Structure formats: structure tokens, C-alpha cells
Amino acid sequence: MNRHFKNKHFLDKRFISSVLGLAVAVASSSAIAATDLNVVGSWSSLELHRQFEKPFWSETLPNVADADIQTQVTTFDQMGIPGSDVYRYLGDGVFDVGMTVADYTVADAPELEGLDIPMIASDAETAQEVAQAFLPLAESTMNRRFNSHVLAIVPYPAQVLFCNAPIKGLADLEGKKVRASGRSTGEFIEALGAQSLNIAFNEVPGSLERGVIDCAVTGSLSGYSSGWYDVSSHLLPIPLGGWDYVITAINQDKWQSLDSETQQLIQQHIDSDFSEPVWENARSETARGIACLTGSGECPLGEPAQMTLVETSEKDTERAREAIESTVLPAWAARVDAETLDAWNQSVGQLVGMTATAP
């Protein structure tokens, strides 16, 4: 069993208060519900939680006829815990269902990096195929590392590149300082000749404005909503940072305590009423964000910005593949075991036409 399940975690006062609040709420509802689920979602301010996670867990699932399911829903940032700790607490049984970006947890589970290798999925359709191919590996990893069972893998929008100076493509990143969105993305950026920096999302606008960094990676709509267009001028709309997949998982002990009928009902509705709508939204969300950032189409969120849209070239695609095969995949392969590599090569690797080999 992973060491995280043997040791008590230090919980700050804010987190303790949140957990106690959840426990009280669940205790008060236990008399009327056969299944109680404490649910912790991803970033509370972003569209994934506001439009999909929260409505599904707080309304859709509890309202299924004869389901007899009661939920209490919050998010990790509202609880005051890092996204990287969500699965640790989930495995310990602090809550029942947890959601966070898989890349946040790779220090504990390097296997999960294989889900979101930069630039291997150029569009939402391919990204969904990658997620489906990776699902068995995600399941075995979550079982072993975090005592959890995978219910869903869904994306944020494509993680694109914002720069505060003119660029024409990936070649222009050489020598620049770039805020990455994960370890593999950082290695990819370094392979392009740029310097990768780890900067918190909310500190990026100030860093771009002061010249601490030249470019930064995030989702197109996230960048628009956070005003990155005020401190950056050029947008390269390729998934340089992958798709920031979010894994929804349930504590394995809790899952095993449910009867098969309840398990099937939960999974069925997650597939049809949560995963499917999120993936459908992903097909248009990146484009909406680009429209809002550049004024190249209708922006449903407000006044469009006027960033310069950088056209993707064949040279960019070739340069990206070279960096992935020569640097990113070997670096990841060195962090995982042979069984993981074989599973990835037989699934995602076959899908995208790449092979991960340890150096």
C-alpha cells in the first residue's frame, strides 16, 4: 500500500473545518439516504466545475429516480487544500469522490504523466481517444497509488500558448522564459530551447507584465476569463500543454461497499450525463476561447480582445514530434516501470504512432 495511506496528513484549520462541515451535513442526511457521497470537485471558478461537476453531483445524480443517493459537494480550492493532495486524501477516505488535474499528482504517481504528453492530441476527438486508451492504465495506477477507482477522465480546453512579444511559431520560443503547466510540458518547452518556469496560475499576469516570463501556457477560455490578453499580445492555439485531463475517482473502499446495482447506476449516469457533455463542450470551448481572445469570431462571454493569432505550421508539428520523441517520452519512461511502458505503448502509443523507451 502506498505510504500516503500509512501516515496521518497534517490538516490545517481551514481544511479541518471543511471536513467537519461535510461530516455534519452527511450525518444529518443519513436517515433518508441509502448512499451518501462527499464530493470534492476541481477548480471552483472554472467552467468544468461550474457547468458540469457541480450540477451533476449536486442535482443530476441525486435526482435520479429510485437512486437514493445524497451528496455534499465542494471543491479542493474551497477546502483550502492543494490540487496535488486531492487523491491522497481521497485514498485515506477523508471524502468519497475527488477530482483534480492528473498532472498535479505526478510526483506521487508518475504513471499518470502518460495521459497528457504535450502535443500528442491536436484536437478534442484525438484527446478523447487518448483518454479512452489510457483508462486501464489510469485505473491500475489509481488503485495502487491512491486506493481509488476511476469513474471518468475529462479535459479542460487545449492548453495553448500566450506570449507578450511577437512570435511566428515554436522556433521563436528558443531563449524565452515560459510558464509551463506540468512536468512533461516543462520538459517539452526545454527541448524547444526555452526556459521552463513553474509559476502559480494567479501570478502569471503580473509575471508577464513585469517581464519575469515571456510566455505562459493555459486554456484559452481560462486565459480570457483571467485577463491574460491585457499582458500578452500573441496566441499560439496548439495544445502545447496538452489538455489538463481531470480524473474523477471514488475511494476504493467506498466503491466496494456499494452494491452492484448502485455502482452500475452511478457509472451509467457519469458516462451519459457528465463525461459525454464535457467532451462535447471541449470540441467547441477552445474555439470559443480563441474567438474571445482574438476577436476572430463571436465571443459569448463578453467583449473580445485583440490578440494576434499565430498560424500553426507544418514545421511546428514536425518540431513538436521531434521534441516528444527525443526528450519528453524518454524522460517519462525513465520514471516508470517496464509494465507501465508496455501498457502505454500497446494503447496510447499505438494510437498516436509513438513508442516510449527508457534511455
TrEMBL record:
Signal peptide extent: 1-33
GO BP of this protein: transmembrane transport
Pfam families, per the entry: DctP
InterPro entries noted in UniProt: DctP_fam, TRAP_DctP_sf
CDD domains: PBP2_TRAP_BpDctp6_7
Keywords associated with the record: Signal
Protein name (record): TRAP transporter substrate-binding protein
